[in-house]
Fold this sequence. Notes:
Distance between the termini: 57 Å
Helix content: 55-70%
Order of helices and strands: HHHHHHHHHHH
Number of domains: 2
Strand content: under 5%
Oligomer: single chain
Number of strands: 0
Largest sheet: none
Structural class: mainly alpha
Amino acid sequence: MTQISDRDYRNSDRPLSPWVLVKGWHLQTCFHDPMHVLYLGTLRDLYGSMLSYWLRKTNYGGAGSYAQRLRIISHDLKSMCRARQLKVTFKVFTPTNTGVDKASEFPELGSAFKAAFMKTALQFFTEKSIELAEKSPEDELLCLMAVCVWNLHAAVCTMDHGDLILGDREAKDISDCIRNHLIAWQHLAYRFELLKMKLFKLRPKHHSLDHLGSQVARTRINPRRVMSCWNDESFLGYLKKIGIKCHVKTILERLYQRYILGLALRWQETIKGVGV
């Protein structure tokens, strides 16, 4: 894994970030956002690869077509969410939006699956992967997938339940689980390459995830608390809903006018609700 110092970064020939002009900034203050690295990044490949292998090599979902079996998997996921009172915008898996219909390409969940769904689905894929591995312990790849997804789920759970500043044990557990997840992914990528199956694609975001684990061990700062862009992405979603209703020639003006108007109306409703 590459590690460069702040001095080396500033002395390099590459274009520097504008942040170098901010007093007190240095390279070690930059952290990797787990939402984009994981939930909008590598998890799309993880779920797509796992679904593809389940459909090809297990009997999960019965003996129907890929579309029929994916509907059954979607139903199981939705049932788990309802049973545990997890509210999330849900999309039914199809061969097209999961990428499992093209054996010549790496499967990947499409952009219709948002970050909140990807995070919630991690629990389902972890439990189902362990269940399938226990049913077929002779399948080394299934067992390796269970190790891969379980370690990631364990790291995410520790981050979700941790404070802003993690304890030494928590930080080490997160770092170790992320490293184990990446090692298992690397083994899976190698094994499927030997089998000529396009599964478990390695991306630059895996490099970022490795850095994230190292940063947690070094700083003990919980990335779930300070490094995720959930609120920022939510705000951009609000702006998008307003922007698509504006005329293209006046959008730069009307967008902010309507946003401020909507904000004022929400404040007014809040004032009426509390009886001020």
